[in-house]
Amino acid sequence: MITASLTYLRESDGWVKTVVVGGLLTLLGFLVVPTVLVAGYLVRVLRGTMHGDETAPQFDDWGNLAGDGLRAFAIALVYGLVPAVLVAVTAGLAAAVAGPGPRSGLVVGAVSLVGGLLALALGLLAAYIIPAAVANYAEQGSIRSGFAVDDLRPVLTSGTYATAWVTGFAIILGAGLVAAVLNVVPLLGTVVGAFVSFYAITAAYYIVGHAWGDCRGLELHDGEGEMGAERPAV
């Protein structure tokens, strides 16, 4: 699956254009709109791979792409709010108990440590849930499906999804390390790192899409895009 994910883009028609567009959008992600468009592309990746489609989508039909991306972005934002709020509350508590003397410093340190650990744990949990939540949206087409506990729980607690998530995380982490090495040459590293990051996250979502399809027992596309045999549920 790792090999297939890393060749997913490269073995599709027009892959160079896709990587160029995706890399540029990733590079300009600080403008928000490009990030939404990349999110929309990842929804397309999930929607295809959960049905066994091995052909990577292209950047086209920009209106629908933006709509998918905006909904996926909103789903991710909601899940990401909890750790973000916890960080803000921790900072507020630390400021409230701050004062002169060593005892105050110990209390501030304890509050910051506990709050930081909780925020880290919740952040990882959110990162674990978000791909599945977006996959459920990609399957059902409703933003509410991103929060459908009955759909998400059996997938999130399955070994299939857990393995896929860890594998995808490892790919993204590896891309981050490559980008860090490339940053030795500041401008070149930033630019090339954006393209590497786009390629890696696409590969990660390819794996998640397949895992989602396996867990949900979704039908597979045949070679012409028609529905074929149904895969067994995991």
Summary tags:
single chain; 234 residues; membrane; 8 helices; two-stranded antiparallel ribbon; transmembrane; mainly alpha; transmembrane helix
- Structural class comes to mainly alpha
Distance between the termini: 17 Å
Poorly predicted spans = none
Classify the helix fraction into a percent range: over 70%
Output the number of helix runs.
8
Q: What's the shape?
A: globular
Total beta strand runs: 2
What fraction of the residues are assigned to beta strands by DSSP? under 5%
Strand order of the largest sheet: 1-2
Question: What is the succession of H and E elements?
Answer: HHHHHHHHEE
The rounded Rg comes to: 20 Å
Protein name: DUF4013 domain-containing protein
Keywords: Membrane, Transmembrane, Transmembrane helix
InterPro entries: DUF4013
Organism: Haloplanus rubicundus
Structure notes:
The structure is a single chain. The protein has a domain at 2-78 and 149-230. Helix content is 74%, strand content 3%. The protein is built from eight helices and two strands, in the order H-H-H-H-H-H-H-H-E-E. It has helices at 2-7, 15-27, 33-49, 62-97, 102-140, 149-156, 159-182, 186-216; strands spanning 219-221, 227-230. A hairpin with a 5-residue loop joins strand 1 and strand 2 (227-230). Helix 5 packs across helix 8 (186-216).
Outline of this structure?
The chain is mostly helical and 234 residues long. It is built from eight helices and two strands; from the N terminus they run ααααααααββ.
